[in-house]
Amino acid sequence: MNGMMTISIVGSAYKAHVVIDSIVNDRSSGGVRIAEDLSLEEVAALAREMSLKYATFRLPRGGAKAGISIAARVSPEEKDRILREVGSRLGPIIRAGLYSPGMDMNCGADDLRAIYAGAGIALGKVTDTSFFTALSVENALEACREELACKGAVTVAIEGFGRVAGHLAARLPREKYRIVAISTIRGAIRNRDGFDAAQLSAKRNEVGDEVVHHVDGEPIDSTEVFAEAADVFLPSARTWVIDGKTAEAMAVKAVVPIANAPYGDGAVARLHDRGIVCMPAFITNSGGVVASSLHDRGVDAGEVAIMMKRYLQPLVSRLLRLSKTLSVCPTELAERVARKELDARRQHPFVQGKLAKVRRRLQRYLPAFARRHVAQRTFVENLTALANELERTAREYNS
Question: pTM of the full predicted structure?
Answer without folding.
Answer: 0.92
